[in-house]
Amino acid sequence: MLKKWLQESNYTVVFTGAGMSTESGLPDFRSSNGMWKKKDPSKIASTDALNHNVEEFIEFYRERVIGVKEYQPHRGHYILAEWEQKGLLQSIITQNVDGFHHAAGSKQVAELHGTLQKLHCQRCGKQFDSSEYLHGDYYCKCGGVLRPSIILFGESLPEEAFHLALEESERAELFIVLGSSLTVTPANQFPLIAKENGAKLVIVNQEPTPFDHYSDLVIHDKKIGELLQELEL
Ligand code: APR
C-alpha cells in the first residue's frame, strides 16, 4: 500500500528521527539502549549544562561529534536522496543532527534541531567545523566556549527550518515518519499539521508512538533500512 501511495502522491514529505540513523551505528535516545536511558537530558543537553557544567557538556558532545564523523549514512539515507532526484520525495524534515541526509545527497532538508557538523562560539557567534572538538579546541580566541550548533533543551527551534517544516507539512499529500518516538514538541506537531491539512500519515517506528491511532498506516515490525530497500522505487 505504501509503495502505491508513494507513486500516486504529488507531494511527499519524510520526517525522520534518531531511528533513521541507528542502522548507521548511532544510538537513539529513548529505546531500550537509547542515550537518555543512561543520561538525564536536562542535565547534559540543556543551556543550563552549557552554562554551569561545561566540562561534562563538552565531553558528552565531543563523544557525539566523534560518532557523526566516524559513522556514515546507511542505504536508507541514499534511497531517500534517490527518491528526491526521481521526484518521488519533495523534502525531508529531520530532528537528527548527524547531517547524514545532506551527506547522502538530499537537498531539501529542514534540520529542526541544527547540526553536530558545526560549532559556534557561545560569546561571539563565530562558526567552526565540529572537527575542532576532535583536535581538543573547545574555546574561541575571544574566550567564549565553542558549542555544537544544535538546539539544546530550553532553546527555540531555528526560524528558517521551522517555517520550512511548517510549509512542507501543510503542502504534503503523503507524510511519512521514519524512526521517531514523536515525544518532543514542537517537532512532533508536524505530522499532525500534515494530517489536519489532508495528508495521508504513515508512521514507521519499531515502538508505538502517541500518534499511531491518528495515522493511516503504522509499521512497527520492520526496520527502516529494510523497508526502504523493499520499496525499491
Ligand atoms: N527502524 C525503525 N524504528 C527504529 C529503528 C529502526 N532501525 N531504530 C530505532 N527506532 C525507533 C525506536 O524504537 C524509537 O521509538 O526510533 C525511535 C527513536 O525515538 P527517540 O529515541 O525518542 O528519537 P527522536 O524521536 O528522534 O527524539 C526526538 O529528542 O532528545 C531529543 O533532540 C533530540 O532530536 C531528538 C528528539
From TrEMBL:
The enzyme's E.C. designation: 2.3.1.286
Pfam name, any one: SIR2
Free-text remark on how the cofactor is bound: Binds 1 zinc ion per subunit.
Protein's UniProt keywords contain Cell cycle: no
Active site: H113
Catalytic activity as recorded in UniProt: N(6)-acetyl-L-lysyl-[protein] + NAD(+) + H2O = 2''-O-acetyl-ADP-D-ribose + nicotinamide + L-lysyl-[protein]
Binding positions (Zn(2+)): C121, C124, H135, C140, C142
Cofactor dependence: Zn(2+)
Entries under InterPro entries matching the protein: DHS-like_NAD/FAD-binding_dom (IPR029035), NAD-dep_sirtuin_deacylases (IPR050134), Sirtuin (IPR003000), Sirtuin_cat_small_dom_sf (IPR026591), Sirtuin_class_U (IPR028628), Ssirtuin_cat_dom (IPR026590)
Keywords: Cytoplasm, Hydrolase, Metal-binding, NAD, Transferase, Zinc
Predominant location category: cytoplasm
Domain (Deacetylase sirtuin-type): residue spans on this chain: 1-233
Residues reported in the UniProt entry to bind NAD(+): A18, T22, F29, R30, Q95, V97, D98, H113, S180, S181, N205, I224
GO MF assignments: hydrolase activity
Sites where the protein binds nicotinamide: F29, V97, D98
Subcellular location per the Swiss-Prot or TrEMBL entry: Cytoplasm
PANTHER family registered for this protein in UniProt: NAD-DEPENDENT PROTEIN DEACYLASE, NAD-DEPENDENT PROTEIN DEACYLASE SIRTUIN-5, MITOCHONDRIAL-RELATED
Similarity-based family: Belongs to the sirtuin family. Class U subfamily.
NCBIfam families for this protein: PRK00481.1-1 (NF001752), PRK00481.1-3 (NF001753)
Physiological role: NAD-dependent protein deacetylase which modulates the activities of several enzymes which are inactive in their acetylated form.
Protein name: NAD-dependent protein deacetylase
Organism the protein comes from: Anoxybacillus andreesenii
